[in-house]
Amino acid sequence: MWLSLFPPICLGCGVLLRHDLPLALCSRCRPRQARLPPSLAEDLRIRAVWTYEGPLARAVVALKFNGALALAGPLGRLLADDPRLVEDPEGQPIELVVPTPLHWRRRLARGFDQSEELARWALRHANARHGWAPALGRRVLTRARATRPQTELDAPARERNVEGAFVVKRPELVRDRRVLVLDDVTTTGATTRACMRALDEAGAASVSALTLLRAV
Ligand SMILES: [Zn+2]
């Protein structure tokens, strides 16, 4: 079965795990990973699961900047562990998952889009678990312009930097659908909220958001 193509490895240090654990961390790395306190997990209209530090932060950095695509599977599974991947905050089924897009120039340079890879794997795991999954909305949302990396900016500047940066390219897929924006990391939530606004304006029935990690 293709879901078990990769042997289970620790996301923190890469050791082979003897068992396929729900959270793919070995006994040494597991205590170094903090779950977000409930107040932050539901903050800013964005659901996040883990803090952006420790072994999972290193795994996301390795995926993004070192092209460690083998990590997308186990990281995607962590997203599938959260019920909000398939249900909106009102408990209604999500119909379309839209990854936060990279600008095409950055995507070309990197060779892949990490949010899209995470979304693809998360939905595969969801499908294996529930027997169904929302559709993956590839190229539904695009970056209309390149933006400065958010890490260089303070919170108000982050909001301005991404204001109007996202355009819904395929509104017919969004209209009257319950849509989930999916991203790897959020800090102030500015990028995620800009995506949510664009989808909302395109006529989505509901727009919620899920990110794997939140910087605190
Ligand atoms: Zn480890």
Automatic annotation (TrEMBL):
Pfam families reported in the protein's UniProt record: Pribosyltran
Residue ranges of domain Phosphoribosyltransferase in the record: 161-213
InterPro entries in UniProt: ComF/GntX_DNA_util-trans, PRTase-like, PRTase_dom
Domain of life: Bacteria
Family the UniProt entry places it in: Belongs to the ComF/GntX family.
Identification of the protein by name: DNA utilization protein GntX
